[in-house]
Design brief:
By secondary structure, this protein is α+β, with helices and mostly antiparallel strands. Helices cover 32% and strands 25% of the residues. The protein has 4 domains: 33 residues, no CATH class; 59 residues, ADC-like domains (N-terminal domain of TfIIb, Single Sheet), CATH 2.20.25.90; 32 residues, no CATH class; 52 residues, no CATH class. A 3-stranded antiparallel sheet has the order 1-2-3. The chain has a 3-stranded mixed sheet with strand order 6-7-8. The longest helix has 18 residues.
């Protein structure tokens, strides 16, 4: 690079000789930064979503390229968050694409030392069987005086603050329909 080319690449020279005397526009750009493009520009499609972390329900835009998430940003059309995300919501791409995320159902039998992989149908059947068994074993139809109870003491639910209001509502309805009375939420404790 010759001295003239070097001088023209210097931001202070461009600031003093160009149309940007305050150095806030083109004068401050380097050839490297001028060539950069946002990750969102190359996305094939944008999917609307909701942040999974708390019950606020901030809107998100999920930018997808080649069926892989490349960026997650706040949705400016969301009436709740108006395009803003908290630090956890801004980092939710890590939740989706992080190497620590399990992609398969893993099961460790009682007293076993190793994990085994199960198909989703088998795992769901195991959960349903255990829920129904715990409900049956803890069922109380009446109290000692014959007063009807129709409840189970074999199930309890502790919801989390990472669920939104709709999810917590459905969990409450499910456990109430199963006869559980110990239904609580982390956000209330």
């Amino acid at each position: 690079m010759g001295p003239r080319k070097w001088l023209e690449s210097w931001p202070v020279y461009r600031q003093l000789t160009g149309t940007d005397p305050l150095g806030r526009g083109k004068a401050a750009e380097s050839p490297h930064s001028e060539a950069l493009a946002p990750r969102t520009a190359s996305a094939d499609r944008v999917a609307k979503s909701i942040c999974p972390y708390c019950a606020v329900g901030c809107g998100q835009q999920v930018f997808v390229k080649d069926e892989k998430v490349v960026q997650i940003e706040g949705d400016p059309h969301s009436p709740i968050s108006r395009g803003r995300l908290c630090p956890k919501g801004s980092a939710s791409k890590q939740l989706v694409t992080g190497p620590q995320r399990e992609q398969k159902v893993r099961y460790r039998a009682p007293y076993a030392t190793e994990w085994t992989e199960l198909d989703l149908g088998t795992a769901m059947d195991m959960v349903a069987d255990r829920v129904l068994d715990a409900r049956r074993k803890g069922w109380q139809d009446t109290d000692e005086r014959g007063k009807p109870l129709r409840r189970t003491m074999g199930l309890a639910s502790l919801g989390g603050a990472t669920l939104d209001n709709e999810e917590n509502y459905l969990i409450k309805k499910l456990f109430t329909a199963l006869g559980a009375i110990q239904i609580e939420n982390q956000a209330r404790i």
